[in-house]
Amino acid sequence: MNSSLFESFPVLESVRLTYRDLTEADKQELFYMRSDPNIYQFLDRKPAQSLDDIDQFLQVIKTAFAQHNGLTWLLVEKTASKVVGYIGMWRIDVEHNRAEIGYALKKEFWGQGLMKEAIDTVALFGFKKLELHSIMADVNPLNANSIKVLEKCKFKREAFFRENFYFNGKYIDSLIFGLLESDL
User: Fold this and answer.
1) How many other C-beta atoms lie within 10 A of the C-beta of residue 78?
2) Beta bridge mates, 137
3) What is the pTM of this model?
4) CB 33 within 8 A of CB 74
5) How would you label 34-68 residue by residue, b for 16+ Cβ within 10 Å and e otherwise?
6) Which residues sit opposite 171 in a β-bridge?
7) Helix axis angle, 27-34 relative to 51-66, nearest 10°?
8) Half-sphere exposure for 132 (CA within 13 Å, toward CB)
9) pLDDT of residue 77
10) Residue 43: alpha-carbon gap to chain centroid
11) pLDDT tens for residues 127-167?
């Protein structure tokens, strides 16, 4: 893995998006996304209840970057300079050159191809710059929109784990997707 990329936060760009570091100034935008029940209906954690939850989220992101095992970008639409979501690679496994991808997009931007653009950009960064061999995604099998975008990005279904995660009083399934550089 190319750990020199963790010396300063890498800013990325694609056709419609800029990918930048999350800052304290983004707390309201992050709270809006991380408290939205539309976004959190298929996630295995509770929505944010306060800005303190966002402070904790930002601390986790900063720590992951400092420890070279995670990168999270805020997604900003270029023409209107609007925050549309965030995307990150975490659980970066140096020994096996593997990372997990995760993302969220504001509901008002769903269906516009922005998340496909973001996943494609971050995956390419992962393969070309971080020198990853594979990228995985763990998705709730009921999250049809996320499954659809991963398949459009050429991720392959690798595993289905039945009731492997206990959250909010019940066991939930996980659908695991993987992407190799050779899949692109």
Assistant:
1) 12
2) 177
3) 0.95
4) no
5) bbeeebbeebeeeebeeeebbeebbeebeebbeee
6) 166
7) 100
8) 26
9) 97
10) 12
11) 999 999 999 999 999 999 999 999 999 999 999 999 999 98
Q: Which of 6, 12, 8, 2 is CA-nearest to residue 123?
A: 12
Q: Which one-letter amino acid corresponds to residue 126?
A: G
Calpha distance 57→39 (Å, rounded):
16
> Is pLDDT at 1 greater than 90 in this prediction?
no
3-state secondary structure of 62: helix
Q: Label each residue of 104-143 as H, E or C.
A: EECHHHCCCCHHHHHHHHHHHHHHHCCCCCEEEEEECCCC
Residue 95 identity: E
Q: Which two tokens stand for residue 94?
A: 């140096």
Tell me the pLDDT tens digit for each residue of 42-69.
888 899 999 999 999 999 999 999 999 9
Could you tell me which of 79, 63, 76 has the C-alpha nearest to residue 29? 76
Element (H, E) at 53: helix 51-66
Kindly report the backbone phi and psi dihedral angles of residue 131, in degrees, each rounded to the nearest multiple of 5, phi listed first: 65, 40
